[in-house]
Design goal:
Distance between the termini: 64 Å
Helix content: 25-40%
Number of strands: 12
Low-confidence stretches: 264-273
Order of helices and strands: EEEHEEHEHHHEHEHEEHHEE
Strand content: 25-35%
Structural class: alpha/beta
Mean pLDDT: 91
Length: 273
């Protein structure tokens, strides 16, 4: 699936005749079929709002969102859910539901209202649980899960939708290092169109084909990781003193000296006693 934003803007608040506060400002981006794209920017830059517009959860105040060239305005919610899965930063669930049932909610767009899960649904759910390493927890209630397990449960639910496009808002937030790497390898290897908001710039550079960088709601850079992530741009956007090097696999890697203007001098080593 190709996902396109055409001069998308979105504002919060406001009333009739009174404009709201702009959050997303005139963003245009084209995410190709099967591409993994990282969405970057500091807190408040508009990443979550843009993702919700692209997922069909919010109507842009201006501009258009298109799936394979068709306006999302012409798609029903059910049709969107059959093609695009969205994972929020802190998605909730009923505390009494077991993990398998939560993942099974991803099959809802494919079932008639009164029909329960069939053999195909159960097989898809089992495969999704296996892909995120939660098979052993299938019967555990939501309230008994750790933060990382909850996040992986919602990723499994998105996979159970068998979507053409995956939109994820900071899915690595509650995961340890191993599960962060496993998740990014999973996402970049699905063959689906993936747009993922991330705070870890080095992780994004390693696994994403391209990066989109937002600042104050505007798209200020788009392209391969090495072109987007520069020391000057990180200073301007994130207000950090950073150095760009290359990791063991040849991907850009960001090292931080500190916030701008507060670089510290390493302590003088003390003689061994």
């Amino acid at each position: 699936m190709r996902i396109t934003a055409e001069a998308v803007s979105w504002s919060v608040g406001g009333t009739r005749g009174t404009p709201g506060t702009p959050v997303v400002r005139d963003v245009s981006a084209d995410i190709a079929c099967g591409e993994t794209v990282g969405l970057l920017g500091p807190n408040g830059s508009g990443k979550s709002s843009l993702l919700r517009c692209l997922a069909g959860l919010r109507a842009p105040a201006a501009g258009a969102v298109r799936y394979d060239g068709e306006s999302v305005r012409d798609w029903s919610a059910r049709r969107i859910a059959r093609h695009v899965a969205y994972v929020a930063q802190d998605a909730g669930a009923d505390g009494d539901l077991p993990v398998a049932d939560i993942v099974g909610l991803g099959r809802t767009p494919f079932r008639d209202r009164w029909r329960g899960p069939d053999a195909t649904d159960r097989a898809v759910v089992a495969a999704a649980l296996e892909r995120v390493g939660l098979t052993a927890l299938a019967g555990r209630p939501w309230k008994a899960l750790s933060g990382g397990e909850r996040q992986r449960t919602h990723i499994a639910r998105a996979l159970a939708q068998q979507p053409s496009g995956l939109l994820l808002d900071e899915p690595t937030n509650h995961l340890d290092v191993r599960h962060q790497l496993e998740l990014m390898e999973l996402l970049s290897g699905t063959g689906r169109t993936v747009l993922v908001a991330l705070h870890d710039l080095s992780l994004a550079a390693r696994y994403c084909d391209r990066l989109l960088l937002l600042h104050h709601g505007r798209l200020i850079a788009s392209g391969p990781p090495a072109a987007v992530l520069t020391a000057q741009r990180l200073a301007e956007v994130f207000e950090v003193d950073a150095e760009l090097t290359t990791d063991a696999l040849g991907h850009p890697q960001v090292s931080y000296r500190g916030p701008l203007g507060t670089r510290t001098t390493p302590p003088t080593p003390q003689p061994a006693m």
